[in-house]
Amino acid sequence: MNKISKNRWILVTLGHYILLFSLSQLNHYLAPVHTYLTLIGLAISYSVIRLSLKQGLLSLIPIAFYLDCTTPLIFGTSLLMIVSLFCTMFLFRSRFQRETITTSIFISLILNSAMISAYTISAISQFGYDSVNISLTLWNLLWSSLVIVLIHQLYYHLIDSLLARFGIHIAEEQLSLIHISEPTRP
Question: Helix, strand, or coil here: 132?
């Protein structure tokens, strides 16, 4: 295993930062129509589905610190939420088919809804109920979910192709691990 393969989390983090940068630009243009997209569930789902526990956590921690710097919540809130969601979903990872697109979209939507809910609950507990507009939060959740469904395959392909440029083929690795772990029949 070469050095880049051991540090694939750096390339995945770069892909997550590209998502966050593009999202911040899009949110700037959507601000006049009171829409704010949150797509962090997409980044968490990629790390859960494609990476090991250590690599996945390492790929998400810099993203969590970035989000902590951009939100008015207590520093560390995003880190706690992201690590908790990642570890919880990682525990159940063996129970679903990671190769199917439908499953990964469903996981992305669940994680994104959980993140938006956690941010909303944190904001209410920190700033009071009047600080959150629930109908606007549901509106943003609806649009965020729609965008996740639309760009999911593009995002996964972007990170997979970034890794492939450095000789890391995650889909092939996962298929070989599946074949190795299957019991042989006489």
Answer: coil
